[in-house]
Amino acid sequence: AMASPAASPDSSSHEALSSVNSAPACSPASDSENLSPDELELLAKLEEQNRLLEADSKSMRSMNGSRRNSGSSLVSSSSASSNLSHLEEDTWILWGRIVNEWDEWRKKKEKLLKELIRKGIPHHFRAIVWQLLCSATDMPVKNQYSELLKMSSPCEKLIRRDIARTYPEHEFFKGQDSLGQEVLFNAYSLVDREVGYCQGSAFIVGLLLMQMPEEEAFCVFVRLMQEYRLRELFKPSMAELGLCIYQFEYLLQEQLPELNIHFRSQSFLTSMYASSWFLTLFLTTFPLPVATRVFDIFMYEGLEIVFRVGMALLQVNQAELIQLDMEGMSQFFQKVIPHQFDSCPDKLILKAYQVKYNPKKMKR
């Protein structure tokens, strides 16, 4: 399914983020000195597309919900869809241009690029855009890949056991394709003896393999490990994960003190629910269409998005969670939270950017 764009964060979130160099553009105009009238118009169209998608999913829901008004729903649904196809076409043209003029966009139109990525990279552009975002397009390690495959890895048995548990319900990983994951991990464990192989990373590799060929996925994975704090997260000591949990607790204490006190009174530790958020970047929390939207942003902005989405989830659910005991909260995190944003990933992204996050403070 084509990812739908998110509305621009509101002004209050903009103020909260103004200290951050990654502050989202509040409106297309904020970056207008670098934008042509065409690009401004496209941004407006993307906002419109967002509204149409909302209308479309609502009319589809009402159509499924009751047969009585199915006639009228079908009309609104099909008219929304025909408008959507024009907008999809525009989005494709825009992303085609971004990919072709990548260096210029990266240098001169960074704010707009950031905003477009937050709205979701169109499905068919993900492979190339992810590679461009992490500079994995011409890595020497790509040429070593076939050599690495001929060697055997000390982690082989462990890898084989785990692969079966990754995305078990996904068609893509039944039969032959699961070999892709296995081979890729064997290769990585040879390049990086210290980390070798870590269970959570299987989900990340699985997602990459759904988008791109093996050698390319390998290059992106190597980059993510080296440049995005993932290698530290996956080291055997797990010290970096401890640090992320510590930082997340700081946000929780500062911004949701009541919930924090409730969690403590129930001995509900942050690591119980948040470890998998950091280790698998929400790939084990949300269904793929939602998780992939978070991953788009991670590829440009790094781990900050994990903190933001995590805090947004707690803010949205604070009232319910405070009523529950430890067992109830565990169930809530497993059953309710994963599906709250299935029909509107944009709302999740919007809420994530309303979370106050100060990188300097986090670093300190």
Automatic annotation (TrEMBL):
TM region(s), chain numbering: none
Matches recorded under SUPFAM superfamilies: Ypt/Rab-GAP domain of gyp1p (SSF47923)
Protein name: EVI5L protein
UniProt entry tagged with the keyword Phosphoprotein: yes
Biased composition range(s): Low complexity: 1-16, 60-80
Keywords of this entry: Coiled coil, Phosphoprotein
PANTHER family: ECOTROPIC VIRAL INTEGRATION SITE 5 LIKE, RAB GTPASE-ACTIVATING PROTEIN 1-LIKE
Name of the coding gene: Evi5l
A molecular function (GO) term: GTPase activator activity
Coiled coil is among the record's keywords: yes
Pfam families for the chain: RabGAP-TBC
Domain Rab-GAP TBC: 120-302
Region span, Disordered: 1-40, 54-80
Polar residues bias: start-end ranges: 18-35
SMART domains according to UniProt: TBC
The species this protein was found in: Crypturellus soui
